[in-house]
Amino acid sequence: MTTPPPAVSVIGLRKSYGDFTAVDGISFDIAAGETFALLGPNGAGKSTTVEILEGYRERSGGEVRVLGTDPRHANLAWKARIGIVLQQTGESGNVTVREQLTHFASLYPNPRDIDEVIAAVGLELKAKTRIKALSGGQRRRVDVALGVIGRPELLFLDEPTTGFDPEARRQFWELIRSLSREGTTIVLTTHYLDEAAQLSDRAAVIAGGRLVDIGPVDELGSPEARIPIVRWTDANGRHEQRTPAPARAVADLLARGGEPPELEVIRPSLEDIYLELVAAAEAEAPAARGDVEVRA
User: Fold this and answer.
1) Could you tell me the end-to-end alpha-carbon distance of the chain, in angstroms, rounded to an integer?
2) What percent of the chain has pLDDT over 90?
């Protein structure tokens, strides 16, 4: 069986602004139908990378293919296959939520159901409200709705749930899972690492413009960093033990004389792994990458 080509292919991508290098030779592929998270601190280069993939920003070097096309030469037919949720939009908001979604849906051959999308982003009670009258968080939900209404083959989500309350965030997650089940390829950037862990098949961590790790979410970081920690207190003070077999360690403690005070088993989370990767990358980075202030 022939393996389909990747939905996104990036080889040696570079973006520079004078002496400042925002993206420094990163390479990765995203399989068709995969949900892929790009993670990194502010200024790491992830937003610049996504904007190059979307065709909004020129690259300085390297090769990029998105749905088989170089984004810098993409036409309207290619753009119709892609959905984008930007960090910020310039939406005027002089129409209602439903009117705006109805208009956008009319531009696509196979849009999602409007009521379904409105419910998925938690705006049922605001469907007849003009967008300019919505709060900032509610406008953000409209942005997400517009990005998914066209049932895109490839969906870019740049910090999509900023301003969402917990219930709306969970509803949005279900929408993304349904898109994934339908075969949509999704590129997600988010500062909510639990969101990346919940939604992503794989993730890449970018720091200082460089790719520092990539792989399935539960395999990021070094094997040592993923080893669970058992902590407890006894007459000799506080203790900590890293062990790949925490249940056995706890059983040994219990066998020695009952459950010790403050016993806990900690399995490193994606956030723990991410912070360790970023700290290590920043420690290895040059002392200065330039004084140019650029959104990256």
Assistant:
1) 40
2) 44
